[in-house]
Amino acid sequence: MAGTAAVEPLTVHRSGNPASPTVVLLHGVTDSGTTWPDLLAHWGGTYDVLAPDLRGHGSSPRFTPDQLPDAPEVMLADVVALLDAQPAPVALIGHSLGGLLALRAALARPDRVRALVVEDPARPTGARRPEPGFSAMLLGGTQAAITDRDAEVARMRRETPWSHTEIDAWADSRPFVDPEYLREGLFLGDAAWEEAFDALAVPTLLVVPPDAPMAPRPDGFDNPLVRTVVVAGAGHCVRRDRPLEYHAAVDAFLAEHAAGG
Q1: Alpha-carbon distance values, 100 to 150, 234, 248 (Å)
Q2: In this prediction, what percent of the chain has a pLDDT beyond 90?
Q3: Helical segments of 174-234, H only
Q4: Three-state SS for 114?
Q5: 99 phi and psi angles, rounded to 5 deg
Q6: How far apart are CA 87 and CA 137, in angstroms?
Q7: Residue boundaries of the structural domains of the chain
Q8: Residue 2: what pLDDT?
Q9: What is the chain's alpha carbon radius of gyration, rounded to the nearest angstrom?
Q10: pTM for this one?
């Protein structure tokens, strides 16, 4: 459990039907709570959707200098606070960094998570400092999208199968990433991975591409609550690369578990 309490709450984007079961969406690094447009359009009013901007992203608070050395714990505390504020357990969905946070939140608050979906979650290494090359790559890509958005959008349309709405949302989120987080706070902490999946006490759907170096080893854990779906032809952003397959798997899982079924 996180030991570093965050002070300022996250910005949370709410959509869907407030009378429906609640789903919380946790985005990946350099994205924001606004980068789920196709999933929200697909669901319509099926769920009450809460999509926070993680700390250091979107319009949520930036990290203070004192928080950056404990960034993973601060981000987990943010997510746990959001879960604790809900009137009932939620379905929790995360991608990449958001997938790791969703997993850790489900471990910390199993009573607040009805069902968990993790899309190619980021595998922690135990590092307590950012990897300079990875940070530099993200900083460069973020700056490119800020400097010449049109060129970056055109490149993504050439190089990915993502929809125009997804690419536009992706590009629009880039100017709102805290560069100090990418430089000083982008590390994942505790290296437990297969052990974490073994410890899950909530129904879990792990959605991964065929080539998924970050995924837990199938022979590394044995938890009947964890179901794995491998989506052919997808990369790290499964829901953007293969939305029909992603929606089919996640819709079926949530229909089974989101409302307590």
Answers
A1: 31, 19, 22
A2: 95
A3: 179-180, 194-199
A4: strand
A5: -65, -40
A6: 40
A7: 12-257
A8: 41
A9: 17
A10: 0.96
